[in-house]
C-alpha cells in the first residue's frame, strides 16, 4: 500500500455450528514495514467466547474477551543465496476479562505484558525450505501489568520466564503438491497464566479440537499437512485441498493433574485464494485424547482473510 514492500492483513474466524452451547469468534490484523535490513511489525488480535452450561439444574452463562498487542523490530544479520538469519526484539501486552452470568470474575481477569528476544533463521534444505525460531520471553510490569507481590508460591506468575521454539519444513513434491510440517514447543519453570501457556487443540495447533483442549506450562505440538492445488478459478483464485494429521503432548504438573496428556487429531479442508482474499473451511475430528477431555466429535473451522 505504501510502495515499500509493506504487508497488511486482516482475518477472522468463528466457532463451529456443531458446538452446542459454545460460541467463539476472533479477529487478527497487522502490518509489516521493511526498511533496508530492518523490519517493523505490529499485530493486533481480539477474541470473544460464550459457553452455556447447566450446574445443579441452573443454566449458567460464561463469557469473556481478550485483546493482544504485539510490537517487534528485527534486523537481518546474515544473508546469502541459501539462508538468512535475523535477530528480533519486541513486546507483548495482553488483557482479558471473564464473566459468569455477566458478573466480572476478578480472579481470572488480568493484564500481562512481556519482553521478547529471538532468532529467526531460514535456509534451503533437501530441496525445500526450513525455518528455526528460538525465543525467550520475560514478564514485565509495563503498561499497567499486574504484580506478583503477595502471591502464593504455586500461583501463576506475571513476571515469568519462558522459552519457545518454532520450526518448520516446506517441501514441494511437484508444482501443485506440497508437504508442510511444523513443530512448536514451550517451557517455563514457573506456573503461567492461561494466555501464556501452550494450548493443544484448535485450528493453529492440533486440528480436530476446538472448545475442548489441553493447556499447560511445558509441552508442544507437531503439525503435518499435504496441500494439493488441482485448479484455478477465474477471479476467486487457486483451489487448495488439504489433509492434515497433528499431535501434541503436555508434561504433567503437580498442581494441575488435568494439564497433562497427549492428543492427536486429523482434518481435511478446502480453500480458495487470490492476491487479496483467502477463504478456507476445514473439518477436523479428534483421534486420541485423555478420557476426561470429552471433545466434540467434529470441529469445523471457517476463516476469511484480506491482504494488501
UniProtKB/TrEMBL annotation:
Domain spans labelled Haemolysin activator HlyB C-terminal: 2-270
GO biological process: protein secretion by the type V secretion system
Pfam families: ShlB
InterPro entries per UniProt: Hemolysn_activator_HlyB_C (IPR005565), TPS_OM_transporter (IPR051544)
GO MF annotation list: protein transmembrane transporter activity
Signal peptide positions (record): none
Protein name as it appears in the record: Hemolysin secretion/activation protein ShlB/FhaC/HecB
UniProt source species: Brenneria salicis ATCC 15712 = DSM 30166
